[in-house]
Amino acid sequence: MNKDEKARLRKTLLQRRASLPPEERKEKGEKIRDNFFSLPFYEKSKTIMFYLSLPTEVPTDEMIERAFLEGKKIAVPCIKEGNIFPSLLTSPSQTEIGRFRIREPKKKKFISTEELDLVVVPGCGFDLKGHRIGFGKGFYDRFLSELKESVPLVALAFEIQIIEEIPSDKWDVQMDYIVTERRIIKIK
Ligand code: ADP
Ligand code: MG
Predict the structure, then answer these.
(1) How far apart are alpha carbons 74 and 62 in whole angstroms?
(2) pTM (2 d.p.)
(3) Which of 50, 98, 137, 166 has the fewest CB atoms lying closer than 10 Å?
(4) Cα of 171 to ligand 1 centre, how many Å?
(5) Atom 16 of ligand 1 has which residue's CA nearest to it?
(6) Is the distance from CB of 140 to CB of 107 less than 8 angstroms?
């Protein structure tokens, strides 16, 4: 049973992330952003799914802004009935608060998962095998399992969110890359 162990790790990791001083969060966030844009497959991707960051998550607003200006189509998650559906974000400032206080586009324009060329994934913690701990509801596991094998899954994390080992269950989807303020980890 990994459930209890995951719950224990999730709590520790969330506390750790929340205790980052705002200045450090900003500084590290900028390095993560720069590392993200150095990923070789970024250029080629036409439609990118980001997440709209919660206050303690690796911030994505500036990344979205830049990708938008560089002509990328931006999709973000909308949660409906316990599932993630990607919606286009046609104007980065036009958002409203949705389920779990997560921002969503005001005007939703749902797109097929097949359109996505790159998916940016949030999380509470990761290990070097690409295992992930999310919010404990399996939203991303269900969503990511529907994507084509070729779509790179890129997790954004502060280095303090990387731990030795995360227990994994059969439904857990592994990341392909983890981008931190210090490095780009390519899994396997
Ligand atoms: P998280 O990844 O959010 O940290 P878990 O990996 O523990 O959380 O998943 C939470 C729950 O979501 C699991 O109990 C599991 O039953 C359910 N779940 C995850 N992925 C799937 C899936 N592909 N199909 C059905 N249920 C799933
Ligand atoms: Mg999981």
Answers:
(1) 13
(2) 0.97
(3) 137
(4) 6
(5) 138
(6) no
* Cα–ligand 2 centroid distance for 71 (angstroms): 32
SS3 content of the chain, % helix, strand, coil (to 5): 30, 25, 45
Please tell me whether residue 175 adopts helix, strand or coil conformation.
Answer: coil
Tokens of 30: 């900028």
| Residue boundaries of the structural domains of the chain | 3-186
Q: Is 45 left (phi over 0), alpha (psi -120 to 50) or beta?
A: beta
- CATH number (3.40.50.10420, 2.60.120.10, 2.10.50.10, 3.40.50.1980) of 3-186 reads 3.40.50.10420
Q: In tens digits, what is the pLDDT along the chain, a chain of 188 residues?
A: 799 999 999 999 999 999 999 999 999 999 999 999 999 999 999 999 999 999 999 999 999 999 999 999 999 999 999 899 999 999 888 999 999 999 999 999 999 999 999 999 999 999 999 999 999 999 999 999 999 999 999 999 999 999 999 999 999 999 999 999 999 999 98
Rounded to an integer, what distance in angstroms lies between the CA atom of residue 112 and that of residue 147?
10
Task: Return phi, psi of residue 117, to 5°.
Answer: -105, -15
Distance of CA 176 to the CA centre of its chain: 12
